């Protein structure tokens, strides 16, 4: 079917290196999401796979065959664009039919396949309309249908949902997931939205300034971030990250910053001393009035969300320290109240001055 | 589901008939457009330029035998042309005409555009009337001008009646007035050009900087000088340069109305070349004249293009930032 | 000064200035039209006759249909009826313009997407348009006569096609530049070749721009005088050349006839111009100024 390999892939625009030494193999039928902030090279990588950009160096293989010098139309791919890219002068039916016409499929078969795909995407009622008469969500369904009808081995999706509002986004996200399960084709999806990546992907490729930062399953990425960058990027509310230093002799190891000073768990004993960032996800911070804990901080703001409550603490930085408490137990806490925080030792992360994870290999 | 169960499209097998290497296909595509273009221009332009070069160095008039037997005269013709006082005056006249009409078109065109860029009742009708002169065939402009400008004609009549004095310049026969008359005609004909360009320029200036300046308490005058004018610079230069070049090439009106006369008072470069070649049948001198004029124009056009390239970048940047904002 | 008062003063100034220029701009056109309806004694009368009285169609019938019986006096004019020139002008202008726009649009696409001409080359192309044709027209006419193209339809179509090509390339490029690339890429990945992408996606998308370009260049070609004067003699005289034959006839000034012909030449042009009035700025500025 379609197994896509990127080998030492590089792309430069003038003196700017947009993509640096990308190596990854995408297995047949896999749903891979490239994620990263804008300008990280994820879209450029996708466009190189599609054939719209020529790699500066490196190889792209589809099923073992180098396709660098193949026209986009000969690569057997389908692509959905951020802007939908429907042909504004053609009706929806003509839009969907286009790919079949280009492959010289006879008219009766074309009509039938357009109908099938339209039913599958629930857009039969749109077939006679023009793209301008369709809403954003409808347009994106049409764009998917147009790609679907050509039956590609691989779907490339370039931020297909980013122009939609939140509700439609969730709806179409589910649709994408359903499609991939039904079709069992390879999906390569590009987005800057970590939530989309987490919910859709079999595997996430995190990119940062042209390089792959980390590859892994959504759970891996979430619970074992390889760097400060990944830790910060995934999760909402995002991980608490506090700059400070690791201090202590061979027996004791402590983390210290302006507001924090606590003993680190055993497995950090051999870690390098010096400047470091300590991180913990809000859901792994225990909160209590008094009792045993790592630190006591004043509450700045309380946000009861119903299912749980967000507590924002003053830790002397601009970015508040956040803890999540289940239920509404903590909803009535007044700002200024001092609360004792405890950190789940297995869920505590340290990053060195370069942002690399320290002492990553914790076993569970 | 039929779609889902059908085998997916595959990468085309190696060496399939329609598949060719992307870089080769791209090259073929590029050259299939470039080649006819280059071919066409070289087939027409090269022989023409070579012929012109030949005639510039060989003395030939239509009264002599075959042109290919013409006598080689070296740079005699160029000497003649460069010392030709009439040609010197033609250059001066052309430059004066082009500058005068360009400035005239620009001043009036800008004023009209400035009064029109904000919508008001009736602006559409004014717009339509204002562009009509530009949509009149130049040769028609010339003949209509003749009907209007003869000494006891309607223009002098109307002006005399309005001013209450006897206003009777001999537009068409007085050597002193003839050139200004053509210049005024050019201004009448092409003010719409400056007008539409400036109007497009003024209305594509973003509103925000102007409104910001208004809030900050700037007067209309200050806003004009400090906000609008700098933003308009590329459009203004464009309007001036293109108009100047077109005016340098103006032939139909000057020719149809005056044929270079009265005396030689309306001999611009194109008219003088035309006279030499087609009235005096001095083909060789005409070619040498053309050559000198061409070099002069190439220099002017190169300067103009230098300027246009710079301003086009500014304009492109303005339009692209505008479309981004619209997203 | 209150806001409403200053606004009223602005309005008064605006309407006064604009109306004065409107009169200046329209008067010559009015004069041409009114003269075309005047009987021959009023063409050159003193004091000038401002309103044709009685209005007559004799000038039109005489010029366009050669109906001499409608003229109170006989005037020798051209050897042929302007209807032949009208046909010539129409064929030459539409054919050369159509060719220029189609070929120009393809070049423009190549430039816009594949940089087949560098920016410097694009400006060189423009240069061909900016250098006055008078400087090459003499050798051109000799070259044409050697090739047997002088005074032929094909010769004029060819030269107009070439001189208008820069305009066509630049103007269509400004429209193509506005087409999002993703639309073409969608077509490409759906299996369309480059040529099919051009003719099935890009050109249909900018069709209103193509129509504007076509009509704009039609205006330029329709009014062109110098090349037509030199490269045509009798067979393919265009309307402007035909009109110039009415100048200096042995019988003296024939203003009414000239005006009737001039109106016939100009009115189609004005209609076309008014149809594309929103695109004129773009056209005249080679697509550099848009609205």
Concise synopsis of the structure shown:
The complex is a heterotrimer of chains A (364), B (327) and C (291). Chain A has eight helices and 21 strands.
Describe the structure.
Chain A has helices at about 40-50, 90-100, 105-120, 135-150, 165-185, 195-200, 220-225, 230-235; strands at about 5-15, 15-25, 30-35, 55-60, 65, 75-80, 155-160, 185-190, 205-210, 210-215, 240-245, 255, 260-265, 275-280, 285-290, 295-305, 310-315, 320-325, 340-345, 350, 355-360. With about 375 residues, chain A is an alpha+beta fold. Chain A starts with a strand and ends in a 6-residue tail after the last strand. In chain B, strands 1-2 form a two-stranded antiparallel ribbon. Chain B has about 325 residues and is an all-alpha fold. Chain B has one domain (about 80-310): Orthogonal Bundle (MetI-like fold), CATH 1.10.3720. Chain B is about 75% helix and about 0% strand. Chain C folds into two domains: about 5-70, no CATH class; about 80-285, MetI-like (MetI-like fold, Orthogonal Bundle), CATH 1.10.3720.10. Helix content of chain C is about 70%, strand content about 0%. The longest helix of chain C is centred in the N-terminal third of the chain and has 34 residues, at about 5-35.
CATH superfamily of the largest domain in chain A: P-loop containing nucleotide triphosphate hydrolases
Biggest chain pair contact, residues each? Answer: B-C, 100 and 88 residues
- CA radius of gyration of chain A: 25 Å
Number of domains of chain C: 2
Discrete helix count of chain C: 13
Main sheet specs of chain C: none
Topology at a glance:
The complex is a heterotrimer of chains A (364), B (327) and C (291).
Chain A: E1 4-13, E2 16-26, E3 31-35, H1 42-50, E4 57-62, E5 65-66, E6 77-80, H2 92-102, H3 107-120, H4 136-148, E7 154-158, H5 166-183, E8 186-191, H6 194-200, E9 203-208, E10 211-216, H7 218-223, H8 228-233, E11 240-247, E12 254-256, E13 261-263, E14 274-280, E15 285-288, E16 295-304, E17 308-313, E18 321-326, E19 338-343, E20 348-352, E21 357-358
Parallel strand pairs in A: 3-8, 3-9, 6-7, 7-8
Antiparallel strand pairs in A: 1-2, 1-4, 4-5, 9-10, 11-12, 11-14, 12-13, 14-20, 15-19, 16-17, 16-19, 17-18, 20-21
Chain B: H1 2-5, H2 22-57, E1 58-59, E2 71-72, H3 76-82, H4 85-116, H5 123-131, H6 138-149, H7 154-163, H8 175-203, H9 207-215, H10 220-248, H11 252-258, H12 269-279, H13 283-326
Antiparallel strand pairs in B: 1-2
Helix pairs in contact in B: 2-13, 3-13, 4-8, 4-10, 6-11, 8-10, 8-11, 9-10, 10-13, 12-13
Chain C: H1 3-36, H2 58-65, H3 82-114, H4 119-130, H5 134-147, H6 153-176, H7 181-189, H8 194-205, H9 207-223, H10 226-231, H11 239-244, H12 255-275, H13 280-284
Helix pairs in contact in C: 1-12, 2-12, 3-6, 3-9, 4-6, 6-9, 7-8
